[in-house]
């Protein structure tokens, strides 16, 4: 569990928080195997025996005062009695994880229904047949990669959808598909239950014994438009054109189908939905004409009109998925408008991911599929944040849904080791933290989760070989208790800023503003925040002298020269304003790509988000020798460095660029055993998604892809290069706004 704060020394009171201009909050990556400093938790058992505060329900931890019969809660100060069992337990402190570490992971007893569940991992692929041959070939490759990643004992089902819904039985000698026609009406459902079409346990095949037959079934997939053409030349069936994409009905039917065995055959099912375009048939069909209409209309703000969902169908369907124990991952491979603004809820609210690939040619879908299924994940998660009494959580951000009954409790259906969430804080009263108190600010994060683990007896000779008993459920409780200090003055606060975490909080806030008020409002919020921060910094350090009551532009320090921790923030804000997340519709930003970025950015941990917003540019003198670890993203930086090789890490893309003046004797592309390649391979392994790798030789290859990342000479409000320097003119504009603000 990695936890990072925007400021490690908290503001002393609400006035200090307000006058600093820095958002106050944290990011949490709960299922990360180690903390932000690389330390693993102390593991143990008997999590249900951990003492809890009678007042605030916080868990006992190493920051609590303990005497022979009682303990004092480190969060609210309540004195709690100890049971005789706990007294005996704490007489041997070295045997208790909670006495040894403030970061613990304890096993909880699995009782009742959970203990009876056959914990077989279940995976279902739902493939769009209203598509092209190229799309299906890519999907087949992705599913073959998935089969290699799935563990022994997993169950796999193959379904297809178009104007009909198909279920594959791959457990016989030859794959058999049974189809049900999808009614075209927007308010209708399938005419029969899928269980009557094919019993669920006939549909879900053991991967161990059926892998070859699943692969054979994949080879039979064909685009729906080439199916069963009527002899009349392919008009229609009952007046319905063949090739409709009945995605909504397919998903709804599938969730109900799987839900019948939730809590019996499986504890979590994952559905992989492969889409080649917008749902346009039956219930859940989307009207994609609004894209063309808004694009053509000058009277309405397209950036605002295309961000909200046009129907609650998929948000409501996500609730059905959750009730059925289903997590949905959507893989959209399309460059046509698909309205991901409506579809995204199905994935993010069920604990899944949303992937978008603009074409089949250079798609990383198979690699992403393998990577996603190869890493561990937890499910049925509950995340609870508690704070000491002086302050409280404000907003929470991330792909979870709040508990309907309890405050500051979030439910996460499925959580991997990369998934990150954020909180901001407010003071609970006007007093704040006392300057002389012995009770520092404390945060406690509790993360309760379930994992599927292989049975230990499988490793023993003669162990039970029944596939159904190959896995069991483990319920665990991970707790992290962090103690902070309060800053005594503004300098201490500014010196403790973590700019990457500040960026994370800002991204969450501007996404929220964009969704509610439009992209223009999100941009204004970000710009105004930087202006106010700069003004408050200048005021705090008394850098501006007033003449006749007015500040002078020449005196404003927009580079934060007195405070190194703040110096990267103007560049990060500039880069975020240049990012497609906040670029205008008329600049050619596809609305689906914007939604994809919103979903991606709001789940990234701070260091990854930093790279995605402001890429890291490194130079090498040879493929084996790094020259400089970091350059600004400008042509001037390339020219002045004099280095022949540059490596750019933009999170989703990695580019190796050889300058046009590089020595021709330098090997291109870099050899596989060099330092640069080692760095590339390490970064690819550490990513949650597969980055696209490009090699460009300046002067010979098209360098547009690389040059587009050199944003500091680009205008913040436009797409092209300008006669004035982009970042420099941006700082000048911020300076003028600061002077105006300080009047």
Automatic annotation (TrEMBL):
One of its GO terms (molecular function) is zinc ion binding. Residues 498-609 form the Sec23/Sec24 helical domain. One of its GO terms (cellular component) is endoplasmic reticulum exit site. Transmembrane segments: none annotated. Residues 51-83 form the Zinc finger Sec23/Sec24-type domain. The keyword Protein transport applies. One of its GO terms (biological process) is intracellular protein transport. Residues 120-372 form the Sec23/Sec24 trunk domain. Pfam families: Sec23_helical, Sec23_trunk, zf-Sec23_Sec24. The keyword Protein transport applies. InterPro entries: Sec23/24_helical_dom (IPR006900), Sec23/24_helical_dom_sf (IPR036175), Sec23/24_trunk_dom (IPR006896), SEC23_SEC24_subfamily (IPR050550), vWFA_dom_sf (IPR036465), Znf_Sec23_Sec24 (IPR006895), Znf_Sec23_Sec24_sf (IPR036174). Keywords: Protein transport, Transport. Belongs to the SEC23/SEC24 family. SEC24 subfamily. This is Sec23/sec24 transport family protein. It comes from Trapa incisa.
